[in-house]
Amino acid sequence: MTLNTDWAVRWIKGSAAVVSEHRVELITLDREIGDGDHGENLDRGFSAVLPKLDDLPADATPGDALKLVATTLISTVGGAAGPLYGTAYLKAAGAVAGHAELDGEAVVAMLTAARDGIVLRGKAEAGDKTMVDAWTPAVDAASSALADGLGEAAILDAAATAAEAGARATEPLVARKGRASYLGERAIGHRDPGAQSSALLLRVAADAAAGV
Amino acid sequence: MKKLINDPRRVVEEAVAGFEAAHGDVVAVSHDPIYITRKDAPKQGKVALVSGGGSGHEPLHGGFVGFGMLDAAVPGPVFTSPTPDPILAATKAVDGGAGVLHIVKNYTGDVLNFETAADLAAADGIDVQTVIVDDDVAVKDSLYTAGRRGVAGTVLVEKIAGAAAERGDDLAAVAAIATRVNAVTRSMGVALTPCVVPHAGEPSFILADDEIEIGIGIHGEPGRERIKIEPADAIVDRILAPIVDDLPFASGDRVLLFVNGLGGTPQVELYIVFRRAAEALAERGITVSRTLVGNFVTSLEMQGMSITVMKLDDELEQLWDAPVETAALRWGR
């Protein structure tokens, strides 16, 4: 399936649905090692995006749709997740600006820009038990998939699978950024809620590309 | 959990409406987006001070808006930083042409949202500087954490920087004073009970009947250790020692001693705490020359308190004593 604006809109609508569906799970993960607002805030943000999709012009590109997500999340989510996800979508939009359809290279560029944006804002590194621990494996897997000559949908699937593994791999870690870092060793055994929501959103991107 | 609320989703807007009705003599309120300004803002030629953060810590920050303190406060949802939009709107509303100082408690969300708002304000030609408050000694400040948290010391930063702005200091000078206050201020808290965020409906953590959390954060984040309850004097000694050792405060110093209630502890217990804290400082040869006791930086209905000690000099004493007229602090005017 072509990665055009319809795909981007399906990804965004699917993101709102999956965040709403996993709201309590994300709140629970965040209450264990943070302040318990991640599911609530992200749900508020993506719910606010939905009505704005109707205002996208007919000739909007996938980048335009992602930029709409970025500005809406920045103004509605709050907490740390608002600026972090907002920056991710903004940088992703910039990386694919002007493309009516995304090829494999554009997908990798989009994911890389999103990850770099999160690192720039949050200053976290791999292994700090943050969103970065889902995004960096996703970017690496997408790059390998592109090098192996796979198509766009398969590249996104590889990214989502790696993000899911990355989110699971945060469980044994001690957090070094964000509110969980105050817990020290008490964070061990809990999955990072930001890494988990990142994996969920990337899975929706892959599903939207696969026509699921 | 019993709460005096109507709808968990309308907690902040209804509280802000009540705040406006009660304190319209000193503040004005914008409802969309939500922010509170001093009634006579913008003050032309005066550096404006803007602070904010999650709600649930009242009277912080709205209660400190007014003459001699903040020009604006931006309340976010309970325990969640406001987004950049209202911070930007408040910054623009109070800018009197002399620049704006953002006073931000050191939490990842607050720092990121204020940073984004400051970038946007700068793009609109407003000179913004930011001071991060991180007075909580309970947290290790290292490469391995988000750094120390901003807690009750924030009130002292807002009061003294506000007085400096009121006397006509420029933006760089006000920022320098705020930084200096933060540098000589240390705090630590203790929780006897957890708090319940309205939309979560459940306690943010669990403490057994006979347990207390030493080094608690103002959102219920854990501190250094969980121990069995002790007499008040022993608890005070336990949290005062790391505060005094950290700066360090030394014999001959003059300090401001601030005992802050976290919301659910009665005033009578705060004075029992103050009594021992003052005595323990005197034993170390430290003179308490200014004081503050009460619920100023709270954590919803949490029982507990924090102790803050600020090292004073002549200028900081003068700025502390300078007139202030806000909902929560008023003197000299």
TrEMBL record, chain A:
Residues 6-207 form the DhaL domain. Keywords: Kinase, Transferase. SUPFAM superfamilies: DhaL-like. InterPro entries: DhaK_L_YcgS, DhaL_dom, DhaL_dom_sf, Dihydroxyacetone_Kinase. It holds the Pfam family Dak2. GO terms for molecular function: kinase activity. The keyword Cytoplasm does not apply. PROSITE patterns: DHAL. SMART domains: Dak2 (SM01120). The keyword Kinase applies. NCBIfam families: dha_L_ycgS. This is Dihydroxyacetone kinase.
Automatic annotation (TrEMBL), chain B:
PROSITE patterns: DHAK. GO terms for molecular function: kinase activity. The keyword Transferase applies. InterPro entries: DhaK_1, DhaK_dom, Dihydroxyacetone_Kinase. Keywords: Kinase, Transferase. Residues 7-331 form the DhaK domain. It holds the Pfam family Dak1. This is Dihydroxyacetone kinase. It comes from Agreia bicolorata.
